[in-house]
Amino acid sequence: MRFRAKAAYDGTDFLGFQKQARDARTVQGEIETALGKVTGQPIAVLAAGRTDTGVHATGQVIAFDADWAHSLEALTRAINVNLPEDVAVRELVECEAGFHPRYSAVSRIYEYSAYVDDVRQPLLRRFAWLMERVPDVALMNEAAGALIGRHDFAAFGTPPSAKPDETTVRQVMRADWRWSQERARDRLVFTIEANAFLFRMVRRIVIALARVGFGQISPDELREILQSKDAQRIKGLAPACGLCLVDVKY
Questions:
Q1: CA quadruple 132, 142, 190, 159: dihedral positive or negative?
Q2: Which residues are the active-site residues?
Q3: Which residues of the chain have pLDDT under 70?
Q4: Tell me: the pLDDT tens digits for 163-206?
Q5: What per-residue confidence (pLDDT) applies to 180?
Q6: Burial, 122: exposed, middle or buried (Cβ in 10 Å; 0-12, 13-18, 19+)?
Q7: Which of 201, 212, 188 is nearest to 112 (CA)?
Q8: Which of 31, 114, 115 is nearest to 75 (CA)?
Q9: Model confidence pLDDT, tens digit, residues 78-105
Q10: Cα(80)–Cα(75) distance, integer angstroms
C-alpha cells in the first residue's frame, strides 16, 4: 500500500533533502533508514521538492510503499521514534497507488524569513536572515508583483534536471513581503507560491528583492532582469537558513 505524509525538518545539518551518491546526511536518507528499521523492508521515499542544503520544511510531502498491518498512528509513532530530533513525519494517511508528491502537485508554497537588527540574534541564526537595516517593503512588493504570472525564470534559477529540453518557465501565483504579525515588527516574511520552482530560484529572487528594498536596483530593473533570462544578472543568493517549504497543494 502507498502512504502519504507531511515531513518537517530543520535543514541546518542536512546536505539537502535528496539522498546523495556519497556518504552524506540527507533528510531522505534518514527517513528511508527509519522506515527500513520499522518495516524490515527496503523503502524508497518520493518527495514533492528537493530542498537544498540548509533549507527547512514544515510541509514537505512524501510518499512511500510499504506492507503494514497495524494502525496509521502506530506507524507514525514507530517512524518518529527511529528518526533523529531534527526530522519528524506528520499527518500520515493511506493514499491511492498512483499518487506522486511531485508530479501530482498543483503548487508549492515557500516562506522566507528575515529579521532587522544591528546586532545578530543567536537564537534566530538557524531560521532567518539578518538584515542590518530596514528595507523599503513597499518597493519590494512592487517589484515582486512583476513575478506574478507565467514567465521564463531563467535569470533566477536552473532546471532541476540536466535534460537539454527542460523548461525554465514557471507559473507564480503569489509573491509578497509582510511584517510578521505574530512576532515583533523586526521580522519580515516573504511568501511565494508557484506551480514548481527552479534550482535556487527562491533564494535568488529574495536577494534580488532585498536589493530593491535597499535601493541598489529599482523595480523596473528587476522586471528587465526577469525579461533578460540572463542568469549572470543576479549575483549571490539569500542565505539558506531563512527558507522553508511550508505547503504543497494538490
A1: negative
A2: 52
A3: 162-163, 181-185
A4: 677 899 999 999 999 998 655 568 999 999 999 999 999 999 99
A5: 84
A6: exposed
A7: 188
A8: 31
A9: 999 999 999 999 999 999 999 999 999 9
A10: 9
- The C-alpha cell of 91 is what? 499527518
Write out the H or E segment, with its range, that includes residue 220: helix 219-228
Number of Cα atoms under 13 Å in the Cβ half of residue 127: 13
Where b means 16+ CB within 10 Å and e means fewer, 38-75 reads: bbeeebebbbbbbbbebbbbebbbbbbeeebeeeeeeb
Residue 194 grid cell: 508557484
Number of H helices, E strands in the chain: 5, 10
Lookup: cell for 93: 494517511
Cα 128 from Cα 183, distance rounded (Å) = 13
Assign 143 to helix, strand or coil. helix
DSSP assigned state of 167: -
Question: In this predicted structure, what is the pLDDT of residue 79?
Answer: 98
Per-residue confidence (pLDDT) for residue 184, from 0 to 100? 55
Q: For the chain, list the domains and their CATH numbers.
A: 2-95 (3.30.70.580), 107-249 (3.30.70.660)
- pLDDT at position 165, please? 76
From 104, 106, 88, 85, select the one nearest 46 (Cα to Cα): 104
User: Grid coordinates representing 237?
Assistant: 543568493
Q: Tell me if 135 sits within 8 A of 215, measured CB to CB.
A: no
Q: At what angle do helices 27-39 and 72-81 cross, to 10 degrees?
A: 120
